[in-house]
Automatic annotation (TrEMBL):
GO terms for cellular component: cytoplasm; nucleus. This is Uridylate kinase. Keywords: ATP-binding, Cytoplasm, Kinase, Membrane, Nucleotide-binding, Nucleus, Pyrimidine biosynthesis, Transferase, Transmembrane, Transmembrane helix. Residues 268-278 are annotated as: LID. The lineage of its organism: Eukaryota, Fungi, Dikarya, Ascomycota, Pezizomycotina. Consists of three domains, a large central CORE domain and two small peripheral domains, NMPbind and LID, which undergo movements during catalysis. The LID domain closes over the site of phosphoryl transfer upon ATP binding. Assembling and dissambling the active center during each catalytic cycle provides an effective means to prevent ATP hydrolysis. NCBIfam families: UMP_CMP_kin_fam.
Length: 335
């Protein structure tokens, strides 16, 4: 997808609106048009590389069709003016020039206005920083651990314990999305509801904005600067975007659990969780999304040596002991 100036603007608009509103929420409903722009924008550097190929390809077949149709359209116009037998001869004195003058004047005025407006626009991401923006938080001051694993692997269970013993702030992407979904007046409520029910991933702009807001709010209100970001990133674009504009992650804590065990846990959790996606059908879809879309993210971090993998099949206490042991080795005094 091409990175358009209007797309970048829409992203900025989204971020401005979200950072103004109450923490952890996307506060200001926006016009539908901007919303679509925001989602069409792919800003990650990898996405840009990928889209470069598409951009250099010839115009779409629809565009080509329009180009080809133009001569026909012109012919049909001219055939009318050439006139049939009954067409009176054209009197050159009847031709009026003032409409042309008005059109040219309006066109020139519009162009000048456009140029001046363009000058007032803030520089785009790529123009200002050669293709990448500075993250909001420096990894020297803020520690971010992504906590990943299949649905029901035990991410939330382990995060609660780490919060208790090591004073992390636990930010569950799923919880933030569910809160936004239920927030009266949220423009994204229905979209989030549909994605969660179908085990699909909510467009990254929404989730990244919610997480950034929650981090800002946490730092401002508690001073805590260590974050467990649970259930995120589930897709490569989220990972790239978050690390580009929010904060590079220190590592990924990955809970490895077989599907049969995760399914058993989720069906058990579903008896009391009240979650719309803790049912057999949604669980199946979530597993598929996890394998097809989220595991490649874990694999990518693994190739960079940034994954701490923990076997999640044992009891919660045993899994926690293994977690602490491995995190101490990986983080030292940052734990
Ligand atoms: N190690 C474990 N063994 C058995 N059940 C577990 C274990 N860890 C978590 N659970 C249970 O499994 C369910 C899913 O755990 P949860 O932490 O909510 O998973 P996730 O956040 O990965 O979706 C919960 O009901 C939880 O109590
Ligand atoms: O970054 C995220 C995190 C979660 N979700 C959605 O929220 C659902 C529930 O995620 P959560 O982490 O709460 O639960 P889990 O599936 O790990 O049990 C997922 O299936 C997705 O539909 C999402 O779209 N983006």
């Amino acid at each position: 997808m091409a990175t358009t100036a209007s797309g970048r603007q829409a992203w900025r608009q989204l971020m401005r609106n979200t950072s103004r509103g109450p923490a952890s929420s996307l506060s200001k409903p926006q016009p539908q048009q901007q919303y679509r722009f925001a989602f069409s924008r792919q800003v990650s550097s990898k996405a840009r590389v990928a889209s470069g190929r598409a951009a250099s390809q010839p115009p779409s077949s629809i565009f080509r069709q329009q180009q080809q149709q133009q001569p026909f359209a012109q012919r049909s116009y001219s055939s009318g003016s050439q006139g049939g037998k009954n067409t009176p001869p054209r009197n050159s004195q009847q031709v009026k020039f003032w409409p042309f003058v008005v059109v040219i004047a309006l066109g020139s005025g519009g162009y000048v206005l456009l140029v001046n407006r363009r000058k007032e626009m803030p520089p785009t991401d790529t123009a200002s920083s050669g293709g990448s923006s500075t993250p909001a938080f420096s990894p020297a001051e803020v520690t971010v651990l992504f906590v990943l694993g299949g649905p029901g692997a035990g991410k939330g269970t382990q995060c609660s314990r780490l919060v208790r013993d090591y004073h992390f702030k636990h930010l569950s992407a799923g919880d933030l999305l569910r809160a936004e979904q239920d927030r009266p007046g949220s423009q994204y409520g229905q979209l989030i509801r549909d994605c969660i029910k179908n085990g699909e991933i909510v467009p990254m702009e929404v989730t990244v904005a919610l997480l950034e807001n929650a981090m800002r709010e946490t730092i401002a209100s508690t001073g805590v600067r260590k974050f467990l970001i649970d259930g995120f990133p589930r897709k490569m674009d989220q990972a790239l975007k978050f690390e580009e504009i929010v904060c590079p992650a220190r590592l990924v804590l990955f809970y490895d659990c077989p599907e049969a065990e995760m399914e058993r846990r989720l069906l058990e959790r579903g008896k009391t969780s009240g979650r719309a996606d803790d049912n057999a059908e949604s669980i199946r879809k979530r597993f598929r999304t996890f394998v097809e879309t989220s595991m490649p993210v874990v694999d990518a971090y693994d190739r960079e040596g940034r994954v701490v993998k923990v076997d999640a099949t044992a009891t919660p206490d045993q899994v926690y002991a293994a977690t602490v042991d491995k995190l101490k080795k990986a983080l030292g005094d940052k734990l």
